[in-house]
DNA sequence: GATTATTGTCACACAATTGTAATATAAGAT
DNA sequence: ATCTTATATTACAATTGTGTGACAATAATC
């Protein structure tokens, strides 16, 4: 895996820079955002592996952002470390409520910050990132980056892999082409809408390429006319 | 999905135009209104995805409009971004009270405006907390975009889906054809009145297509002669 | 550096959906 | 009963949305 990307959300440029340098030295990539909204956009665009979030963003929106991220299914597994100047127990309690993964109280040492980041990343990657997802005899194993149907390897391109991974971890839900683009390609690239269709086709083709299975796995990728696509075990 | 439509509400033509051009370049459709009243009409007619609302409309009606929109059930989920010249905290507090989704303080850069719009749109479309609506064994699930009767999928077109969704979330109320057209099609399209009837028919047909149910779900869509249609669990 | 795989886009084929008009049926009014 | 008006139903042509194969450009691999 390439270096993890950390999103720094803080309204003070000095702190952003300082943390950015620290992370850089520790071998992370970093992007930063100044406001909760910038952060939200950056998350969609850059798909960071972890968010460092200042508690005290102007307007109290730091905690609000955390809450929103944890509530939304699509971002709920994105680890968040809160940066807080106060050591008050109140904050911690409130934050744990929201579901953030850890705290670092300012001032902090670079070493401590990096250690906590690594700890959280270790925890979260061990938890779900690498766990294989299975639907009937279709299995997607992120750690070995493999798709198998009844133990027969299925060949597909990287994009189709990501697409299938996204679908398999968000079953029974329709996603518009825009949404799929956000999730699979990232929000900052421009794609013709029909491009999604083509990749859907390639994915279906790959899933259907395994012969003599009781189930036609291509059927699981369903078209919802006028709305987008859906991965579902139930018939269309 | 087609481009989102943004409604610009501002009394200054120059600002309306400037924003309009910006949005156009960013791939949005835009319509504009000069007064709160025009805005209200435009909302019904164009069903915009987001409203850019000037705080300082003549007569202080900007904030008033926001309040009204957020209070009315039919428009309460329509995202609103306030445009305000003042950065005073008072405004923000008052506005958050009303429930607007974000603020942009003039002067603002086109980039910022577009970024905020996208962020809000993503938030509002991503956080589809829409719960499934259920009536006996008829279930409409917005997130999976599925209709089922006793777990059997019911097939229908997008328009019928929208129609049923509207009905199911507004049960026991008669709606005139005009009203239905406003809600399901949006007010600016011209339809023959009989067209509604045809879609009602298609909806009934779809609901009735599932065999051997104890209830005939087509019966829930009731004709109220001289008035319109009604979705009701009580017999007609 | 050559070869191969993957990617995004286009053009066209195909299918579902849509709105309307024409006609049939039902419900009130006289 | 008959007339009048409102709604139901059917069929159809136009529109819109999706599927598919081919292609050139780019990236990955050897």
| Cα separation of the termini of chain A | 36 Å
Q: Helix amount of chain A, in percent?
A: 40-55%
Which sequence of strands runs across the widest sheet of chain A? 2-1-3-4-5
Determine the number of helices of chain A (DSSP H or I, runs of at least 4 residues). Answer: 8
Structural class of chain A: alpha/beta
Name the overall outline of chain A: elongated
What does the oligomeric state look like here?
A: homodimer
Radius of gyration over C-alpha positions of chain A, nearest whole angstrom? 20 Å
Order of helices and strands of chain A: EHEHEHEHEHEEEEHEHHEE
Short description:
Two copies of one chain form a homodimer. Chain A has 236 residues and is an alpha/beta fold.
Task: Describe, in plain words, how this protein is organized in 3D.
The structure is a homodimer. By secondary structure, chain A is of the alpha/beta class. Chain A has eight helices and twelve strands. In chain A, the strands form three sheets. In chain A, strands 2-1-3-4-5 form a five-stranded parallel β-sheet, with helices on both faces. In chain A, helix 1 (about 15-25) links the parallel strand 1 (about 5-10) and strand 2 (about 30-35). The longest helix of chain A has 20 residues, at about 110-130. Chain A is elongated and about 60 Å long. The interface of A and B includes residues 176 and 178 of A.
